[in-house]
């Protein structure tokens, strides 16, 4: 059975601000929310996990469909009330500055 995570859990899993997540969702770069009740929304955990895997592949330069190199750590979903283990999106020594060095 697919689990649905609420915003607080989602943001802890993906490591971005709510505004950034909203912008990515609006641009079609993040899984769409699902309505789970009046005024309540969530995201399918399997879709979020797939998004994290795809993002990891891009950031690490793995070929499409190829294996994703191991991350230096992991987020344990059960710590957040989610029944899954998710890899970290970035390794500890990874920089996002495209013009900088990794020193």
Description of the molecule:
The chain has 103 residues and is an alpha+beta fold. It has a three-stranded antiparallel beta sheet. It has a two-stranded antiparallel ribbon with strand order 4-5. A hairpin with an 8-residue loop joins strand 4 and strand 5.
List keywords for this structure.
32% helix, 103 residues, alpha+beta, single chain
Q: Which SSEs are present, and which pair or pack?
A:
Layout: E1 4-5, H1 7-14, H2 18-26, E2 34-37, E3 40-44, H3 45-60, E4 74-76, E5 85-87
Antiparallel strand pairs: 1-3, 2-3, 4-5
Q: What order do the strands of the largest sheet run in, or round the barrel if closed?
A: 1-3-2
Structural class: alpha+beta
Number of strands: 5
Q: What kind of oligomer do you see?
A: single chain
Separation of termini?
44 Å
Indicate the percent of residues in helices.
25-40%
Main sheet makeup? 3 strands, antiparallel
The number of helical segments is: 3
Q: What fraction strand?
A: 15-25%
Shape: globular
Low-confidence stretches: 72-98
Give, in order, the helices and strands.
EHHEEHEE
Mean pLDDT: 74
| CA radius of gyration | 15 Å
């Amino acid at each position: 059975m697919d689990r649905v995570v609420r915003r607080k859990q989602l943001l802890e899993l993906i490591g971005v601000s709510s505004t950034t997540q909203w912008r990515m969702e609006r641009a079609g770069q993040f899984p769409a929310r699902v309505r789970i009740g009046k005024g309540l929304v969530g995201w399918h955990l399997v879709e979020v996990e797939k998004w994290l895997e795809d993002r990891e592949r891009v950031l690490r330069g793995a070929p499409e469909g190829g294996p994703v190199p191991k991350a230096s750590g992991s987020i344990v979903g059960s710590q957040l009330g989610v029944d899954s283990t998710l890899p970290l999106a970035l390794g500890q020594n990874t920089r996002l500055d495209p013009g900088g060095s990794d020193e």
